[in-house]
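Sample entry as discussed:
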Amino acid sequence: DRLEIGDISIKIINVRCERLNDITPADCVCEGYVSDTSKHYAEEEWRALEWFRRTWESIYPNGYKSWDANPWVWVIEFEVSE
C-alpha cells in the first residue's frame, strides 16, 4: 500500500506487533539514533537501546505505555519517496 502526503509517498513494507523491550539496536537507528562508529560494537548497541529507552520514557513516563510495563507496540516499516 502507498500513502500520499503532499509531495511525499510512503510505501508500507512490513507491519508487525512486538513487545517494546524487544527493540533491537538496528531498530533504534531506524527510529533516529545516530551511531558513533568509533565506539566498540557492544557498547554502541547498549547506547542505542539506552537512547531509545530514555526517549520513550520522555514521551510515556508512567502507566501502561511505560518502558517498565513493556507494552505491545505496532512496528510499521516503510520507505519514503518524493
